[in-house]
Hints:
7-stranded mixed sheet, 5-stranded mixed sheet, about 40% helix, globular
Amino acid sequence: MKKIPFEHLDLTIYEETLENGLQVYIVPKENCNNARATLVTKYGSNVSEFVPIGKTEMIRVPDGVAHFLEHKLFEQEDGVDPFSFFDESGSECNASTNPWQTNYWFSGTQDFEKNLTFLLDFVQAPYFTKKNVEKEKGIIVQEIEMYMDDPYRVGFEKSNLNLLQVHPLRISTGGTKESVESITEEDLYTCYETFYHPSNMALVITGNVNPETTMELVRQNQGRKQFPKPEPIQIRAYQEPDFVNKEYESIAMNVTIPKIFINYKLNKKEMMDIPETLLPLYISIYLDIKLSSTSTFLEQLKKDKIVTDDVYFDFSDIESHILLSIEGETEKQDELISCIDLELKNTKTTEVDFIRKKKTILSSCIFMSDSVDRLNNRLVSDFVRYGHVRSDLYDEYQSLNYSDFRKVVDAFHFDHRSVLVIHSKDV
Length: 427
């Protein structure tokens, strides 16, 4: 087991890769009462075409399988309900699926070793039958229909669908009613056996735990189980073009003020010399300077009564592109779209603004290290994105510089845009 200092954060990462390939990361924190453990697989809704383990031909599974699989792992052959099990010790547990990963976690102050053993055992003991798969379909379809009444969820999913041509990020994490109803137990076992092998997973533990005894517990638990020899996973690669799928769409929902989603697709080819770990930070800084609640731009939007509240922004990235999303409520649709366009394309910035935002990022790094949950989420994200966790986060953030920031900003081209408007049904 390696001991790696978490630079400048007064923490230590205990790291080990087990014989079956499972990566284990433990960060003890003595000044807290609780602990959190997350078992994560690098498998989410982005993966629908792949070569199953032991096969040679690529297949396509129905949309929504990763999310369906997350649901079904909570049904155990012995009838024990994981939620009830963790609840007995006053612990919280849950799971989540996004385009890139599926997480299973618990957090609590008591019976940590018993809960950790149960987490490993229930995720590593799939039990799928035709009967229990059919039963789950109605539950998931109902969940999908519920989300269709949420304008923010609809806005996010419709925006991705309109922005992207071929990349599977355009597909809803839950799939569609039709795709869910076509899922079989064979589909679930195929995906489970391919993507839930320990070599494609990590266990991240943060909080008040003893790293030596916890690592030994995990070793013994995994040593009692048999897993096939790990094989490389082959997933289809996608060549996403620059142009958007649909430039404009307007839909009616139960909203009082229209919601506007303005989305941009930026090619990353001119940003490739920027370190992969720093590129998202530079983009975040730019968006903060331009659109945050403290920006002069937003202050002017409110003064001109174009918006009555903040605008919200986020971004994600795929292999070839950065995807920006800006959302706001307004009765002045054309004015808001025009103002956002002009503000983002005016890439003038000052080093003073950059340094101020960099200090905020450094502060957030320290803030993150003080929270068991935020620290756990950070390490999980590192594993999924980079295949390992980073112990030099603070130094990386410290290395942010205005020269590289300007290289990123100068590479921005806001020519490929998609707009989604969600308006009232009464209009």
